[in-house]
Amino acid sequence: MSFVFDIAFGMLCLAGLLSIVRLLRGRSTLDRIVALDVFVTLVVAATAVGMAMRSDGSNIALAAAFALLAFTGSVSAARLVEKKEPYR
């Protein structure tokens, strides 16, 4: 079972690296906001995989709070950008 967790962590790390590249090279502000939201989602998923690997659910509330905070930040940032930037 450890092999599955190692593969899951590897894939999450690769996806995180790609989202950081998109965050740095994004053409518009909305691209960067989406990349940051994807990165936060990957962090929450990695936390869930780590909890499953250790069979310890003590960080579930922390992961849920972090996901909710990231979602709220993404929605508010997208609303601000929508008002400031014209549609392309």
TrEMBL record:
Spell out the family assignment given in the record's similarity comment. Belongs to the CPA3 antiporters (TC 2.A.63) subunit F family.
Q: Where are the transmembrane segments?
A: 6-24, 33-53, 59-81
Instruction: Respond yes or no to whether keyword Membrane is given for this record.
Output: yes
Quote the InterPro entries the UniProt record gives: MrpF/PhaF-like
Domain of life, source organism: Bacteria
- Would you name any one GO CC term? plasma membrane
Q: How does it sit in the membrane?
A: Multi-pass membrane protein
Organism (species):
Haloactinomyces albus
| Biological classification of the source | Bacteria, Bacillati, Actinomycetota, Actinomycetes, Actinopolysporales
Pfam hit, one: MrpF_PhaF
Which protein is depicted?
Answer: Multicomponent Na+:H+ antiporter subunit F
GO: which molecular function terms? sodium:proton antiporter activity
Q: What is its main location?
A: membrane
Q: Which UniProt keywords apply?
A: Cell membrane, Membrane, Transmembrane, Transmembrane helix, Transport
The subcellular location is:
Cell membrane
